[in-house]
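Dock iron/sulfur cluster; give full complex structure.
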Amino acid sequence: MESSLPPAQPILPLALPALHASHGGCWIDNGRAHGQGGDTFARQVSKGDAIIAAAEPGLIVLNAPLVASRLGYPDLAGLDLLELFAFIFPARFMVPTPRGLAHVLDLPEPQGDAAVPAFLRLAAAALIAETARPAWQEREGAWTVLQTMSRLHWPWAPHLVQTIRRPERAERWLFTRLPEWEEAPARPQPAQVVLEPDAIATRLATIAGSDAEDRPAQRQFAQEAGRAFAPRGRTREPHVVLAQAGTGTGKTLGYLAPASLWSAASGGTVWVSTYTKALQRQLRRESRRAFADRATGERANVVVRKGRENYLCLLNLEDALQGGFQGRPAIMAQLVARWAAYSQDGDMVGGDLPGWLGTLFRRRGMAALTDQRGECIYAACPHYRKCFIERASRASAEADLVIANHALVMINAARGRETGGQPTRIVFDEGHHVFDAADSTFAAALTGAETIELRRWVIGPEGKSRGRRRGLAARLADVASYDEDGGRAISRAREAAEALPGDGWLGRIGEGMATGPIEHLLAAVRDVVHARDESGGQDAGYGLETEAAGLDPATISAAGVAHDALEALRQPLVRLGTRLEAILTDPPDWLDGSARARIEGARGSIQWRCDTLGGWIALLARLGGPADPDFVDWLAVDRSEGREWDIGLHRRHLDPMKPFAATVLAPAHGVLMTSATLCDRRSIDAGAEPDWAGAVARSGARYLSIEPRRFAVNSPFNYAAQAQVLIVTDVPRGDIAALAGAYARLIEASGGGALGLFTAIRRLRGVHGRIVDRLARAGLPLYAQHVDPIDTGTLVDIFRDDPRASLLGTDALRDGVDVPGDSLRLVMMEQVPWPKPSILHRARRLAGGGQAYDDAIIRARLAQAFGRLIRSDADRGTFVVLSSAFPSRLISAFPAGTPVRRVTLDAALQSIVASVSGPVAGAIAPAVSGDPA
Ligand code: SF4
């Protein structure tokens, strides 16, 4: 980000004390004026003294929850600079560390922990000084919000009242400032166009730019990707192209070239679907060039589209601002209101709302500002015409390119009519995740948490519930009074929903006091799951599950009663959906545009609930009877850290690509699936063909009898010179102290820049707790998922920003981290990433060839984790697996030519030290040696 503060005159540190706490110690600056030069260092104090200081008001800190967790003092309040930043620069990016703050404020970076408190005082003064500058871009609305913040006793308010003066003209209130979206006529269907190879090549050359290096593989890739856009010959037979493209091929521009060409020529929309937010961000940048408006040269018609639960709901925010939130959550709502006025698209998850803002407050508070439960009242909402969700939905119907995620593309394909467009030309980037996304999207979960949500959606608030939530009857009152049949259906649904679990269901089940047919079923499920548990309490605290087979008569009987209760709810909902359809088809006088929009919205969400209920009913209907070979069913009790939080029955498709093929592929005209790890690699031979069988099976094409087109190109990187794989053989498995010691020494050897991947949170925490202080004292900060109170996206930002930082994490980091350059030079895996032995995995393993199925999964995981290491020509790095018995058959997971060695930990350390100070290739032998069978 560009510097935003060129201070006109020297800024003096704020005359308040400041505290910094790292794993290396605690430092306090007492807030008095420093001597000339201003570089006085703070006093190092004990944790106890830091806690005493923290109990006093008016202490400046950066990231209060993080400091609180370092001190073990949860009540820390203080003047948090992150809150001040969020108020002054809403919707601006900042890495929430002293270094990140220094960068964004254009201040000198503090050198070492002891210099941080003085820096915090200076940063506070610089931030406050910004509000006095006439050029402060985010001034509008600040005075009004500050008045409320003063009443809420926000500790920064008294420091801002001097510089943020009452504006001469009254400020516009957020809800009047936001622009309205425009209604647009329906788009004609896209023209049928054939893309000429020369045109694709020219387009690629144009968007890559004249200074781009020549990439023959990228040119080839673009031609192959172009085939997905050819006119379709038969219904239910889309063009399916599978393209394996090694890291560095430049596949993003490779598919954007034909996609933008097709969109311009046909007038249609291309959907590009990703799995990770990192790739979404990259696509947002790169697509601007590819989709630049050819007539005016202005910004491209590119829209990032997410699920509605990601966006701010303005009605929920208004409720929160007008008394719905009290105390700290009310301050959070004011900061969110500041952000909403400057946000590009209202996306609260991965958009321009700082990811760290939610963690400064209660997490659930932030979620309560989104539309999590499908309670939107559409056109009855006073903010409907300014609603971020409605704007995104309309913009995507108009867009040349929609950037979305796999789950949303699948949901839109299933419910295209009600969500504003069914995708027909789709690029699945990170295509190796399509299977997992389909698996979750087409799953059924009849659990307490799901059923209580359905009850609330039908009935509305009960008991002491507050807020604007309303039940189905209130949302559709006009339908009930106009259409007798529809009104009856609403009443019947309302009565039937009483059978669903209500507030306190989990406690009642625990005490043997279940009420209603679903709670009784869940109680029976819980009893069966516990009765069959054979872990002997060893896994206390983790989820339990058992097959939905061999169930006792009492459970089967409870399932039968629950089945009838759900059917009694589904039928009136189906009837209501039919009545709404009839009203839309033959509209009465009162059905103006806004009522139509609301009823269309209601019809869509009723359809969605009917589908969900249908899935649950089918699952219950089969209990006690023969298993359906297409599905895997099981019973589960979900627990975390010793507490049960959900109970239920689960159903997955044995092959989720079957519903994917019917829902996504069949209506599509062209689909490209691409990834660096689409195919398995069973041979280490550099010339070996990729193994397409798995990739083809995981495309779903066979369910439509389509033979997908295949294309593969290797990475241009020189892995023999840029990378090495070290399999460390002398760290005993299961010895957490030895594992922690190995991690610490590896991080020290590489001087940080290490990403440590774990398959279990328990081991991650065990390792982190043992080594974090030692590393901090050596100036090597260590961050960790599931330990630090920081969201994952921000952890990756911090890691990327500091080449001496290291990061520990679990699955989400295996391919959610895109850190080119020096910040990532070592990837460590604590062991071979075996699949979790669940009921679902066992069924798929049996159907998929036993060990060969597992091996393919492990190789894919290794390949994805290795893929974090080398992101550009200039990257160098080492991949370490701590495993005394790493099977040789898994070594082919790594790109051809990568040197792989089995070594002791000492030898690995020497090799890493040599590699960080010289070319990797010189340090290792380019061969696999001493492999056990
Ligand atoms: S239209 Fe719906 S989602 Fe949008 S602000 Fe209103 S209630 Fe919230």
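Observed: The CA atoms of residues 520 and 575 lie 28 Å apart.
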